[in-house]
Design a protein that fits this description.
The chain is α+β, with helices and mostly antiparallel strands and 317 residues long. It has helices at residues 21-27, 47-50, 67-76, 87-101, 125-131, 169-175, 198-201, 204-219, 235-247, 249-261, 267-278, 280-283, 293-307, and strands at residues 4-15, 30-35, 38-43, 52-57, 60-66, 108-120, 132-135, 138-139, 141-142, 151-153, 162-168, 184-191, 196-197, 222-223, 226-229, 287-290. The chain is built from 13 helices and 16 strands. The strands form 3 sheets. Strands 1, 2, 3, 4, 5, 6, 9, 10, 11, 12 and 13 form an 11-stranded antiparallel beta sheet that branches. Strands 8-7-14 form a 3-stranded antiparallel beta sheet. Strand 10 (151-153) and strand 11 form a beta hairpin. Helix 9 crosses helix 10 (249-261). It starts with a strand and ends in a 10-residue tail after the last helix.
């Protein structure tokens, strides 16, 4: 299974010609609705199989879909976002979608979009997710809507317009009754609260920039790293250093202070631990972080995906 990159979910808002509404309604199986004196149109349950959720109010159209699923449906007949896809394929799919919606590119903006890659790993995806701590300088938190180590994201509050997400694609697909194979890990960057002109989003320079940012963000991911020590460092000191590395100096001191106050440590033991923690800024140079196999594999696969051109924009004739 090769690495995959794609635009996935996307929300497009556009201004349309009133004269085209009947055509759009018929072409996309929309139903007429009323709200007070207003008449508007929206997708029926058929959209679950068609892949596009559309709403028209006056001359304003809103479309929510997965570009990757639409691309797959056009070629296999199935809505599937686990198939290989490049930016070039995505741009062609977007253009086909605009024709279907009777929307001119210059009259549309994108308010939400996701890009990502799917990777076949040596071990189950949650083994990698357990090890990741930060991406692009932001903490990756366990998503409360999923079992532990099945999905982590950076903070998703309304104040963040960009969210990084890593999840177990094998688990996610299985929950939806689909099978994508074992050990499938997916990383995504979600852009929300946007207002990107569609003509800009499908331009080569924009796609190249987004691809570079995606690679930079995810190449800066931090995995849990073990410490090794220089010659002459005692094993007991190395164990203390590794614990400080995992939980930080403050939590380390708080933990052992409580044990001392509870009578679990002698005064001499507590003083030895406290002095080690106090001297950590200078002691730190005696230890080296070791890059683990999981981190090395992740970054090798990410780089390979970037180098083989999956983020290459469409070539213009």
């Amino acid at each position: 299974m090769k690495q995959k990159a794609m635009f996935d979910k996307m929300i497009i808002k556009a201004t349309i010609d009133i004269a085209d509404i009947d055509t759009i309604v018929l072409r996309n199986y929309l139903e007429q609705c009323t709200e007070g004196d207003e008449i508007y149109y929206k997708s029926t349950a058929y959209a679950n199989f068609d892949g596009c959720f559309i709403e028209i109010r006056g001359s304003r159209l809103r479309c929510k879909c997965s570009i990757c699923k639409l691309w797959s449906k056009g070629r296999t007949g199935k809505l599937d976002n686990s198939r290989p896809m490049t930016f070039a394929m995505a741009v062609r799919t977007i253009r086909e979608l605009l024709l279907r919606l009777s929307v001119k590119p210059e009259n549309a903006v994108v308010t939400y979009y996701e890009i990502g890659i799917t990777m076949k790993m040596k071990l189950p995806a949650d083994e990698y997710i357990k090890q990741v701590q930060e991406a692009s300088g932001r903490i990756l938190w366990n998503d409360a809507n999923y079992p532990e180590a099945k999905q982590k994201t950076t903070e998703k509050s309304k104040y963040f317009r960009k969210v990084l997400k890593i999840y177990d694609k094998t688990f996610e697909a299985g929950e939806k009754g689909r099978r994508v194979g074992a050990n499938i890990l997916r990383i995504e960057t979600v852009y929300k609260h946007q207002s990107v002109p569609l003509t800009e989003l499908t331009d080569n320079s924009f796609l190249s920039k987004v691809g570079r940012i995606f690679y930079k963000d995810w190449s800066e991911i931090n995995f849990v790293r073990e410490l090794s020590a220089m010659k002459g460092v005692k094993m007991s000191q190395l164990e203390k250093a590794r614990e400080i590395q995992r939980i930080g100096v403050t939590r380390y001191k708080e933990r052992y202070k409580k044990m001392y106050l509870d009578g679990a440590l002698t005064k001499k033991q507590w003083e030895t631990i406290r002095n080690f923690a106090r001297s950590w800024p200078t002691e730190r140079v005696k230890y080296v972080e070791e890059v683990g196999e999981l981190e090395r594999e992740f970054k090798d696969r990410l780089l390979a995906s970037y180098q083989v051109g999956i983020f290459t924009p469409i070539r213009r004739k």
